[in-house]
Write a structure and sequence with these properties.
With about 290 residues, the chain is of the alpha/beta class. The protein contains 12 helices and 9 strands. The chain folds into 2 domains: about 170 residues, NAD(P)-binding Rossmann-like Domain (Rossmann fold); about 100 residues, Orthogonal Bundle (6-phosphogluconate dehydrogenase C-terminal fold). Strands 3-2-1-4-5-6 form a 6-stranded parallel β-sheet, covered by helices on one side. The chain has a 3-stranded mixed β-sheet with strand order 7-8-9, with helices on one face. Helix 6 links the parallel strand 8 and strand 9. Helix 4 runs parallel beside helix 5 and helix 7 packs across helix 11. The longest helix is centred in the middle third of the chain and has 27 residues. The chain is elongated, with a radius of gyration of 21 Å.
Length: about 290
């Protein structure tokens, strides 16, 4: 598959890496970018991510093969509303949002009958760094991308978006939007919430500096994701609020079991919990 032209809104880690990966695969002829920061756009052009910085989004999407929305999810409704009337007859739209229920809702509200050409996606390839300088041609190599196709999508449209991500080196899976949000509330959104919470707890203590001076690899590994964007994770948590609250409630119940085991000096219960956790974690190999 050869894409003559793609338009990317948001040329940071996700959008920039998408462009670089397709370039590396020889699968795109022209990349046009839009964003809120002129300095980021200039940098993206200097780094070879973009061929051109767009000036008129409505005009650019008219003859694009593919449009990628790689902005924070909260910006997507405004972009969708702006480009919907001008989308070309064969132009497909996908996104890189970490939540899908809200994005699908925005698409139905703002793309109108063009929603048939919107195939939602979530690349599982985040990092703590952001911006055009963080983009990597091999970011998606061997990583998972989840598509959450809509009932309105044609098989051909889904296949084209799937192929684009596969050309980036990704392994593509499919879930419904609801399944997606439930899964990632458990394995992504909850861990981020817990990591932020632990660091926030220590940050408020009078002996914070002393505590951090003795923190080692366990603390480093557990809290690595607390270095992520506060604004982005604020929006993700609120967007997936219901599923995340359910997971948080279940985790709180698990903590209470541990609390009781400690209170009762129940060594057998602690070992039972730790053993199962160790067994599952040892057998898990991230893809």
């Amino acid at each position: 598959m050869k894409l003559n032209k793609i338009v990317i809104f948001g040329v940071g880690l996700i959008g920039g890496s998408f462009a670089l990966a397709l370039r590396k695969a020889g699968a795109v002829s022209e990349v046009v970018g839009f964003g809120r920061s002129s300095s980021t756009l200039d940098q993206a052009k200097e780094l070879g991510i973009l061929d051109r910085i767009g000036s008129d989004a409505a005009r650019e999407v008219g003859d694009a093969d593919l449009v990628l929305l790689a902005t924070p999810v909260g910006q997507m409704p405004f972009i969708m509303e702006h480009i919907a009337p001008s989308l070309g007859k064969h132009t497909l739209v996908t996104d890189g949002g970490s939540t899908k229920g809200d994005v699908v809702g925005y698409a139905r509200a703002h793309l109108g009958d063009k929603v048939v050409r919107f195939i939602p996606a979530h690349p599982i390839a985040g990092a703590e760094k952001s911006g055009a300088s963080a983009a990597l041609a091999d970011l998606y190599q061997g990583k998972k991308v989840v598509l959450t196709p809509l009932p309105e999508n044609s098989k051909e449209a889904v296949a084209r978006v799937r192929k684009a991500w596969e050309l980036c080196g990704a392994t593509v899976s499919e879930l419904t939007p609801q399944q997606h949000d439930e899964v990632f509330a458990a394995v992504s959104h909850l861990p981020h919430l817990l990591s932020f919470a632990l660091v926030h707890d220590l940050a408020q203590r009078d002996n914070r500096d002393q505590l951090l001076s003795f923190a080692a690899s366990g603390f480093r590994d557990f809290t690595r994701i607390a270095a992520s964007s506060p604004e982005m994770w604020r929006d993700i948590c609120l967007a997936n609020r219901d599923a995340l609250m359910s997971e948080l409630q279940q985790y709180a119940a698990e903590l209470y079991i541990l609390h009781q085991a400690l209170e009762n000096n129940d060594a057998a219960k602690l070992e039972e919990i730790f053993s199962l956790a160790r067994e599952v974690r040892s057998a898990w190999t991230p893809q």
